[in-house]
C-alpha cells in the first residue's frame, strides 16, 4: 500500500475477535491511518486494546454500546473532536451477536435482541455518523474507503440465494435473518448515499476462529485480516452496494 487506506477508521466491537484483529491490522499497515478509533462496550476491561494504546500513538479507544442511543450520541461527539473538519472516512459496523435458535426453540426475545444488535444498531450508527462521513466525502472525488465508506459485517449464512434445506445454519434463525436484513440496509444506504460519495458494502469476513466463529472455523483472525484490509483498500464505485466475501468474491443476496 503506497497510500494509507484511509485517514480515519472507526471499528465497533473492537475489544475481541475480528474487530480487534482489524484494529491490529490497521495499526500495522504501512502507511497506516492517521487515527484508528476502536470502540467497545467496556474500554476499562479491554486489555488487548489497552496494550495497543501503549504501543501506538494513533489509536483512540472509546466506549460504545451499539444498542444504546445515548452511547451512540456521546461517541459521535467524541469522534467529532478527534477527526475535526476532515470528517470520518470509514465506519466498520463490526459488532454483532449470535443468539442460537432453531425453528423448534427460537423465541421472540432472541429474534428481537439479535435484530436490535445486528440490524437496527447499524442503521442508527450509520445515521449518527452521516454528518462526519459527509464531511470526509467532500474532500475527495473518487469513491472508496479513502473517501467515505460504511462497511457492514454480514455473513454468508444470510445469503437467500445460497440457502438450502440441508445447510449448516438451521440453528441460527435469528442471526441469519438479522444479517439478511442488514444486507437490505446496506443496499438502501448504498443507493441513498451514492450521490454524497459515500460507499456502502456488506462483507462476509470468512468463517473465522473467534468466540462467535468457534474452534472448527478454518480461518484464524490473523489469516483473514490482511485479506479484508487489502479488499477494503481496493473498493471503488463499482463495489457500491455489493455483498462481498473476504476474498472479494460477490455473494448472491
Ligand atoms: N467469526 C465468524 O466466523 C464470522 C462469520 C461471518 C460474520 N461474522 C461477523 O463478524 C462480526 C464480528 O464477529 P466475531 O466473530 O469477531 O464475533 P465475537 O468474537 O463474538 O465478537 C463480537 C464483538 O461484538 C461486540 N458486541 C456485541 N454486542 C455489542 C453491543 N451491544 N455494543 C458493542 N459491541 C457489541 C462484542 O463486545 P463484548 O465483548 O462487549 O460482548 C465483541 O467485541 C460480527 O458482526 C459477526 O456476525 C463473523
Automatic annotation (TrEMBL):
InterPro entries: Fungal_SecMetab_SDRs, NAD(P)-bd_dom_sf, SDR_fam. It comes from Podarcis lilfordi (Lilford's wall lizard). GO terms for cellular component: cytoplasm. It comes from the Eukaryota. The keyword Protease does not apply. Coiled coil: none annotated. GO terms for molecular function: oxidoreductase activity. Keywords: NADP, Oxidoreductase. This is C-factor-like.
Amino acid at each position: 500500500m503506497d497510500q494509507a487506506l484511509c485517514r480515519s477508521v472507526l471499528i465497533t466491537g473492537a475489544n475481541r475477535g475480528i474487530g480487534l484483529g482489524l484494529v491490529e491490522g490497521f495499526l500495522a499497515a504501512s502507511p497506516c491511518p492517521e487515527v484508528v478509533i476502536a470502540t467497545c462496550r467496556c474500554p476499562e476491561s479491554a486489555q488487548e486494546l489497552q496494550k495497543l494504546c501503549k504501543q501506538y500513538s494513533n489509536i483512540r479507544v472509546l466506549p460504545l454500546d451499539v444498542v444504546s442511543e445515548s452511547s451512540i450520541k456521546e461517541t459521535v461527539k467524541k469522534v467529532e473532536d478527534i477527526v475535526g473538519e476532515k470528517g470520518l472516512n470509514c465506519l466498520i459496523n463490526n459488532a454483532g451477536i449470535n443468539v442460537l435458535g432453531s425453528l423448534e426453540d427460537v423465541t421472540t426475545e432472541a429474534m428481537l435482541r439479535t435484530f436490535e444488535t445486528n440490524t437496527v444498531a447499524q442503521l442508527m450508527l450509520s445515521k449518527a455518523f452521516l454528518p462526519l462521513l459527509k464531511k470526509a466525502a467532500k474532500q475527495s472525488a473518487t469513491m472508496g474507503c479513502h473517501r467515505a465508506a460504511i462497511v457492514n459485517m454480514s455473513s454468508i449464512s444470510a445469503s437467500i440465494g445460497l440457502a438450502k434445506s440441508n445447510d449448516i445454519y438451521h440453528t441460527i434463525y435469528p442471526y441469519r435473518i438479522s444479517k439478511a436484513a442488514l444486507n437490505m440496509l446496506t443496499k438502501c444506504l448504498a443507493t441513498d448515499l451514492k450521490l454524497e460519495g459515500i460507499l456502502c458494502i456488506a462483507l462476509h469476513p470468512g468463517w473465522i476462529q473467534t468466540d462467535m466463529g468457534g474452534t472448527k472455523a478454518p480461518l484464524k483472525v490473523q489469516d483473514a485480516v490482511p485479506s479484508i484490509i487489502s479488499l477494503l483498500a481496493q473498493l471503488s464505485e463499482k463495489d457500491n452496494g455489493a455483498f462481498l466475501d473476504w476474498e472479494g468474491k460477490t455473494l448472491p443476496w
